[in-house]
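Exercise 7.
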Amino acid sequence: MASIGEHGGDDVRKRLRALGLRPTRQRVALAELLTTGEHRHLSAEDVYAEARNAGIRLAYTTVYNILHQFTAAGLLREVVVEPGRTWFDTNTGPHLHLLDEESGTLQDYPIDPKSLHLLNELTLDDDLEIADVDIMVRVRRKPGRD
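Solution. The predicted structure, written as tokens, is:
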């Protein structure tokens, strides 16, 4: 995702066009907002609040729709933690997620999908290939450890 906005608004517009998305004011503003700094996991509510704080005036529904458009275009990854709890991940490269069940924080853990030996055990029809691997590891403190 970082490549979408590395060099400013014109590059963002070009990247959106290349992905078949019209570079509307709202899409450009959210793309620039999402590409600032490190990779992050954000809910639609988080993005809406950040946009408002940055002076970007958008309806919540517009933010939600744009996040799903970015996900469909491959600019974001949707991470469903549990029903009704979804984050949008700006890191679309290969990685798995560690979810701390106590704090609710989600952390990226880099991984080479080729190192997942379980994938070698899959028997797929000849016309199928693995498109993506989505792994969520849930962690918590051991009892008695503070």
